[in-house]
Write a structure and sequence with these properties.
The chain is an alpha+beta fold. Helix content is 24%, strand content 29%.
Length: 238
């Protein structure tokens, strides 16, 4: 389940609290909810204090970290349910030649003039990411070529224009785009993982909104509960 948490002041405590809010069949019936909440709040404060002014925070502010889709479907979407299924299954067939050369690096550019140079993947490497390295069956999408262009990607620093491979798909008017630049290396967290915080762990961060005021995360939960929920006015659940 995806959960969206809003308001930057309460963001960290809310995300940590998601794990507390999720319950499952194996939960202890006599768990002290008040005590659990105090542990979560204390952990959130520790993480926030460790992050502020850390080397990890400084690295994050100047990095290229995609927080949204790095693949953009053709304008107007795919033609049919069969094509959508082929895309979801990474079912592609290559008919034609892909560019054999490309620049070594590409420029990631943000509004306001900030930019970053990152290594650029080749067309064949990007195609293998689309296809999963295998030849598609039925149904499939047929790629007939590619050229280097640009696309907009949501990042940890807001929307950025990045180099992208624009793949030509048979019988589709506009290209399928895939970002071609490599993300920055993730910084080392300033605080180790907690083993004693109650609740289930979050699975992953999915994206950060373009305005930087909300994040979407995947929250794990048991088969016997209704999914994650967070108390207070800081959060919404999708």
């Amino acid at each position: 389940m995806r959960t969206r948490v809003m308001r930057s002041v309460s963001l960290l405590a809310a995300v940590v609290a998601l794990g507390l809010a999720v319950s499952g069949c194996g939960d202890q019936p006599d768990r002290d909810a008040g005590g659990d909440a105090a542990v979560v709040v204390q952990r959130a404060r520790q993480v926030a204090a460790a992050w502020d002014g850390s080397a990890a925070a400084a690295a994050w502010r100047v990095a290229y970290q995609p927080m949204g889709d790095v693949i953009q479907l053709p304008r107007g979407g795919l033609r049919s349910k069969a094509d959508e299924q082929a895309y979801q299954d990474h079912s592609f067939v290559l008919q034609g030649k892909l560019p054999a050369t490309r620049p070594k690096d590409g420029r990631v550019a943000w509004a306001g003039g900030a930019s970053l140079t990152r290594p650029l993947a080749g067309a064949e490497e990007s195609y293998k990411t689309l296809s999963g390295g295998r030849v598609g069956g039925q149904p499939h999408l047929t790629v007939t070529g590619a050229k280097l262009g640009t696309m907009t990607v949501t990042t940890s620093r807001g929307p950025a224009t990045v180099p992208a491979w624009l793949f030509t798909v048979d019988d589709v008017a506009s290209p399928l785009k895939q970002a071609a630049v490599a993300p920055s290396k993730l910084p080392q967290p300033p605080l180790g993982q907690a083993r004693d915080v109650p609740g289930y762990p979050l699975n992953q961060l999915v994206k950060i909104a373009a305005d930087g005021r909300s994040v979407t995360v995947v929250a794990l939960h048991g088969v016997c509960d209704d999914g994650p929920a967070v108390e207070g006015d800081c959060c919404t659940v999708e």
